[in-house]
Amino acid sequence: MVKEAEIIDIIKKVKKEVQKYENPIVTEIGEVTRNPFQVLVSCILSLRTRDETTAKASSRLFALASKPETMIRLSTKQIEKAIYPVGFYKTKARRIKGICKVLLEKYNGKVPDNFDELMKLKGVGRKTANIVMCYGFHKKGYIAVDTHVHRIPNRLGWVKTKKPEQTEEALKELLPRKYWKDFNDIFVTFGQNVCKPVGPKCNSCPVSKNCEYYRKVYLKKMRKKVK
To answer: How far apart are CA 168 and CA 178, in angstroms?
Structure first.
């Protein structure tokens, strides 16, 4: 089992490495606006969509409406036009309208600062709920696990998990609590720019010597090329 000191060392190296890159857009929106609703909506827009596209779509949409009571007044077509070309933009437009309706009817127009209540909103899964808790409400005790945060700990050899929710639980056992909140932010940026799903930059990675994938997969590929 990986030692805590090694985990902390890797997190520090990854954090230093990603300082040269831009923050994930949802994190940036949370830091700038301190608005849980905008974090929630931008997170929904970001699903299966590149950050650059999400950023532009979020900006266009929030210029029209930035809170549930104004968003609900927009037609679904208006929302679709604002957020296009995010992935599944028509479905997401309907989801946003539906969420606004529930927020206004059940939560006085406020995004609930409760994980279980967030999970009741249609279209909100564990990743989105965790992100809203971390970067919308800036609460500790949550780890948002997306495809990057699932993939990288598995590549490093910290965990052996098949699903993001399994990774979330495993990370809570492994990581010191003070690193939970920023873990998604740091490792999403790392996954987008260095430890990519296809063509990871292992030869320039600052933590390759600690990485199981590097030792067992990448180096073997390089040896075969030499032969």
So the answer is: 15
What does DSSP assign to residue 121? S
Range of the domain at 212: 4-22+143-226
Q: Are residues 8 and 52 in the same domain?
A: no
> And the tokens for 10?
């890797």
Catalytic residue annotation: 127, 146
Q: How confident is the model at residue 121 (pLDDT cuts 50, 70, 90)?
A: very high
Can you read off the two tokens belonging to residue 147? 């495809």
Q: For residue 212, give Cα distances in angstroms to 152, 161, 166.
A: 10, 14, 19
Helices (H) and strands (E) in the chain, counts: 14, 0
Domain assignment of residue 27, yes or no: no
Does the pTM exceed 0.85? yes
Per residue in 37-82, pLDDT tens? 999 999 999 999 999 999 999 999 999 999 999 999 999 999 999 9
Total number of domains constituting the chain: 2
- Specify the DSSP element, H or E, that contains 50: none
Indicate whether 28 belongs to any domain: no
